[in-house]
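hiii, so i know i said id send this last week but things got crazy w the move. better late than never?? heres the sequnce for the chain we talked about at the cafe, plus the structure i predicted for it. fair warning i was half asleep when i ran it
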Amino acid sequence: MTHAPTPDATPTPVEDVDPTRALALVGEGALLLDVREDDEWAAGHIPGSVHMRLGDLDPAKVPSGVRVVAVCRSGNRSRKAATALAAAGVDVVNLAGGVIAWHGAGLDLVAVPGHGQDG
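okay and structure toks below
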């Protein structure tokens, strides 16, 4: 009798990276995957990032063969996303501190028109 592994038996370790390392990874071709909610994304996201809400996360929809940097507001939701992606075989790291750390490091964010601080 064969037993399938339990999905949460041993979480795959995921590396945390700071904004400087994340930016370097993007320069090397990594994909920034923002897993925040729609309103958070619209209010301000990292230029060039791809949006896929954590609740809609599907490893099959993440390009294969590309390193992924998972992003959220503070690094907690993106850690969950990164752990799930790593378990599915995706080469993924987590942006520690999330968009807060990115912006705090003086790196740019862009907003969807009409959804800035007043939207």
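btw Residues 38 and 64 are 24 Å apart (CA to CA). thought thatd interest u
miss u guys!!
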